[in-house]
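Pasting two entries for a bug report.
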Amino acid sequence: MELLKIDYLGQPLRVEGSMAGWQELFWNNELVSQKPASATSNGQYVHEFNIQLNGIKSDEGYDNTPKLLRCRIQLDVQWQPFEVVYKLYVDDELMEDGKRNYKDIEHQVPFELPQTKRTFSLVSLTTFAVKLFKSTKTIKLALAGASLAVYSSLFSLTFGVVLFISLMFHEWGHVLAMKHFGLKTRGIYLIPFFGGFAMRDEKVNTRWQAVVIALMGPCFGLLLSLLYMLVYGMTGDIFFAALASLNALLNLFTLFPILPLDGGHIVKNISASMDIKTVAVVGLGVVGLAGVLGFGLGLTLIALLLLVGSAEIMVAWRKRHDSHLLGLDHYGQFFAAVWYFVTVTCLIGVIWFFAGMGDDMLGLPLRMLQS
């Protein structure tokens, strides 16, 4: 991830690093200093490098005499909570200092290497087609219409419309979360048989952003189920009870802790921020919860998926240093985990509530979870 970026003499000076301890310093996108991975990622780092200038512009004019500048950057890095204090020295003179915290990282634009011009090929043609697909509103509307037509023909027009609304509401939650973090979005795409997804132009910078974006879809789905419950309470029409239960099941499915579902992304980003002791405790806790749900409540499908999720936790922790994302602090880990489990519990509660009414149709979602 990008720890630091400042402009000096009109050129970008950038430091990349991770919790594994490695750091790389780039001057005008050229690597000029690096530090290897270490057991301790917190602490002080010093980067020293030289800059060869052909001339220097000043108030008196432009000096064409070549000059070699001796530069040194001192970094004091703390990861939880995240903070970087920096000082830039040129020829032993302090030129700039300051600090960056979690909010600065969260709102920065991720750095991407300049793209080189490519010659025509099958790969470039495919890339062009993908970009055209992403940017064409007509294709987006066509996919949405195709999804509605497919679901309506397989089941009924009413079911197709209900499923369409549920998918749109869910993806709308993702889009609003992206916009909350200032990320540019390309809108919502509905793919027949594959549900839908919200596309963004920019990468996230922190695991907190990734967790919030992933959770807001199911949370919006939960709100829609609660709205259906409210209408059912006002009208007594069992149709709205069925809508609430079905919508809850669809959103619960997206929270299963398996990639590429929302639940898989949530579990991955929480787990990758933990230390080994916490990961071990959480992993054992998930296994225990799976036993309770499977043998105590008969929710066999959820229990099985939780066991898969416990494996996902360990895999995500082992690969935690492969990402540029800034991890969650201890408060963020706890809050995200509680938010996730509360959302799952509420969705199961909606399904359980209507299943207890004795109607075969309303009991179907619960029987699917117990299968």
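Entry 2 (this is the one that rendered wrong in the viewer):
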Amino acid sequence: MGEKEILAGTCNSDAGTANGHYNRIPAVVHRLAEGFKAGRWASHIEPVPIPSKEEVIDLILQAQQILFPGFFTGMVLSPHSLEYHLGQKVSVFFENLARQISSAIRHDCFRHNQSCTMCGERSYQIAAQLVDRLPAIRELLESDIEATLVGDPAAANADEVIFSYPGLFAIMVYRLAHALVELEVPVIPRIMSEYAYHRTAIDINPEARIGASFFIDHGAGVVIGATTDIGNRVRVYQGVTLGALSLPRDAARRLRNSKRHPTIEDDVILYANATILGGETVVGARSIIGGNVWLTESVGPDTKVILKQPELVYLGNKQQRGGER
């Protein structure tokens, strides 16, 4: 038997084996479909559209080009072309935003068996309200950029902050998403915050309330819960958690709309890996919370909370420990 005949026989045998396994797929598909149709598992099998995650992400990037013109587009802008450029960008953003808001409202109405609430008209009204807020959002972002320049000696200029600081990107997404929360848009704000978390490892719930001149340094691991209140000129370092105390399993629904996360007043600094928990916990104005502090009770204004210096144990050559000469 020749080599070609052996290879042909092997290939035919492999194809037969594959076909045998394919026969199992219809039964699996049937079991999956039955589980979804019976309502045992979450799914979206409905005659209404659902917001597109990809298009919501694109909205963020469109907004970024509007809020920081000339930074994230390939074209060179001049004072003469700026209004034309912004007009075109804002018009496209408005239309795309209205479409996604319409999907979110329709989906929410259908899910909760609500009567028609004129979703199409409402979506354009809400999108227009968000567009009206863009100058105020940009003003807040300018204060956040200035806070970064004041708080980080490594920040050379505003361009560097806009281009490369993950904290500013996460704050920009938060400020857009929070505006949509205030306008009672479902689903979309959480999609936006999840994308920011995916890009920066900074998790800011869009329902949190954050004042002006907010600075997140480095950022990875920062978590800010839904009912957190943060004042003006607050500085937060990597790994900080503003979270809720552990709750009994049956308390989640009961406490969903209650204050579960801390309040951080004006001019507070929270150093790396500080954990501050609880809805009744207040960090007073101008206080400093040191690195790795675990805090579940309030501290007054102008308070410094730090950990005691741990005892270090050195093993090995004494000459290598303190750089002794």
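Dev reply: Rendering is fixed now. As a check, the viewer should reflect this: The chain has a mean pLDDT of 89.
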